[in-house]
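queue> holo job accepted (FE2/S2 (inorganic) cluster)
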Amino acid sequence: MQTRPGIVKEIRLSADGLPAAWIECPQPSRPQPGQYLLGWAAGDLDAALAAPLFPAELAVDGFLAAGIPSAWEPGTRLELRGPLGQGFDLPVTTRRLALGAVGGALDRLLPLIQPGLQQNMAITLYADQHPANLPSAVEIYPLAGLSEVLAWADLLALDLERRYVPLLRALLNVEGDGRLPCPVQALILTPLTCGGVADCGACAVAGRRHPLLACVDGPVFSLNELDW
Ligand code: FES
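queue> job finished
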């Protein structure tokens, strides 16, 4: 199990108001939007308690990870395993990108905004909160209007906990066979206990044909892969 070192440079609050660490790490450890690392304090023999670290912000030398262990502080040295899993796939042909924070979590969607704007995409965010410091080019709408964006977007990227998957039909106003007017990619948040090394099954998600593992098959799935 290969790990690389990282170091906590700063503690701050994320857009979701969670304690977040700016982690400096080697370039190969930098996760893409939607991917994660498993991280623990160097020398902590209980690496089974590794924290899943998703990027809420990215830079060339590191990333911001929200929801970190309370013991981490500036200077904490880390062991990092990953990047792990499948992240968001933002095709260069995308012109209209919609983001949906189902259940209120925005942090893991935010790293899509900068690359989207750099590729001249129009971006709309559907959320029940209005994060500070969002680029003014991003339009914000209440989550209840999410179904309306399906006719506009080239791609809808969602973030939701596994327990909210059964709510998607109503939220997207989709009936019958669940055919969608635009591609939808969903980051399904589950426990990521072993990151795929022990087949623990804690991250299982209902797939169309068989159960899928969010730790390796996801955590970002095309909605067409899922039984929703
Ligand atoms: S987290 Fe253990 S199999 Fe996915």
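queue> The pocket of FE2/S2 (inorganic) cluster is lined by residues 192-196, 198-203, 213, 215 (CB under 6 Å).
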